[in-house]
Design a protein that fits this description.
The chain has 235 residues and is an all-alpha fold. The chain contains 10 helices and no strands. It folds into 2 domains: 108 residues, no CATH class; 90 residues, Cytochrome Bc1 Complex, Chain D, domain 2 (Orthogonal Bundle), CATH 1.10.760.10. Helix 8 crosses helix 9 and helix 9 crosses helix 10. The chain is globular. Bound molecules: heme C (2 copies). One heme C (HEC) binds next to helix 7, helix 8, helix 9 and helix 10. One heme C binds next to helix 3, helix 4, helix 5 and helix 6.
Length: 235
């Protein structure tokens, strides 16, 4: 679909205004950073991997909450706050902000991480590295870590939510159910129970799903949207 579209736009624009042809296929840094955010969240789903690793990651501690494929997600070890509070590795990845992304790529290939190019190809490794080096925020600036409440303003977030998110999630956030019929989980549920995760997803999108990424808007807007979502019904 995308390739077709690119091809078509190349032909059309190529005939009319030549300089645009150079822009048509170029991925911007912001696009790559947001893809890197989805890779951090779940690279196996983002890359539509047919055979993700089944065994528990060797660096995942035996006392951890999960096992199998899920232990290969960056977030399983490094957490939604990027410093492992709810993950298993107490390392502040935010110290990598502003550093050379190539150094991060090298870490991913090390014996601790074991992301071979067969698992995480170079383009994916460099996008997640770019996310750490240029795309991280300090989520505690936007969420009170103790109460889990967004520091944003729900009234300011409402129009964004209603004109953007509601198209897919419904005005009350209950159109999509992330849980089961028995134990439904809606946006309101998630926003209150896992605010750090929701902030990450607002910024970067949902792996493998047709959800938008709001990375072009300032993080303050994401915090306002989160604040509004925390007022939505949880059941
Ligand atoms: C199974 C657990 C696990 C997973 C999954 C994992 N890491 Fe790590 N990561 C670690 C451990 C353990 C360390 C500390 C390594 C050390 O002490 O040398 C670490 C360290 C790092 C560091 C260096 C931090 C520092 O300042 O020393 C970076 C950067 C990093 N990981 C990025 C990632 C990224 C990106 C992903 C996903 C593509 C990922 N990690 C997935 C366990 C994991
Ligand atoms: C184009 C459709 C679309 C739009 C627009 C959209 N989403 Fe989503 N969103 C989805 C889909 C599809 C899923 C995955 C649902 C699933 O896994 O069952 C999802 C999942 C999520 C999740 C993950 C929940 C979880 O626990 O996995 C969050 C959080 C979320 N969306 C928040 C938002 C917010 C906030 C906005 C507005 C800024 C938004 N979405 C806009 C389609 C959309």
């Amino acid at each position: 679909m995308q390739t077709k579209y690119l091809f078509l736009s190349c032909c059309l624009f190529g005939m009319a205004i030549t300089p645009l042809t150079t822009l048509a296929g170029d991925l911007t840094e912001v696009y790559r950073i947001s893809r890197g955010g989805r890779i951090y969240d779940n690279w196996m789903t983002t890359l539509k991997m047919k055979t993700p690793p089944k065994e528990t990651h060797a660096s995942y501690p035996s006392g951890g909450e999960t096992k199998g494929s899920a232990t290969w997600r960056c977030v399983a070890c490094h957490g939604w706050d990027y410093k492992g509070t709810k993950g298993t590795v107490a390392r502040d990845l935010r110290t990598w902000m502003g550093k050379d992304p190539q150094q991060v790529t090298a870490i991913l290939r090390d014996p601790v991480h074991r992301y071979t190019p067969e698992l995480l190809p170079d383009d994916a490794a460099s996008d997640v590295a770019l996310f750490l080096a240029k795309g991280l925020i300090e989520p505690e600036k936007y969420i009170d870590a103790t109460s889990g409440r967004s520091r944003g303003d729900a009234a300011r977030g409402a129009p964004y939510f209603q004109t953007i998110c509601a198209a897919c999630h419904g005005l009350d956030g209950r159109k999509l159910n992330f849980g089961s019929d028995k134990e439904p989980e809606y946006l309101g549920t998630e926003a209150n129970e896992n605010p750090f995760e929701v902030l990450h997803k607002i910024r970067n999108g949902q792996p493998g799903q047709e959800m938008i990424s709001l990375r072009m808007l300032p993080p303050e807007v994401a915090a306002d949207i989160l604040a509004y979502e925390q007022t939505l019904p949880v059941h």
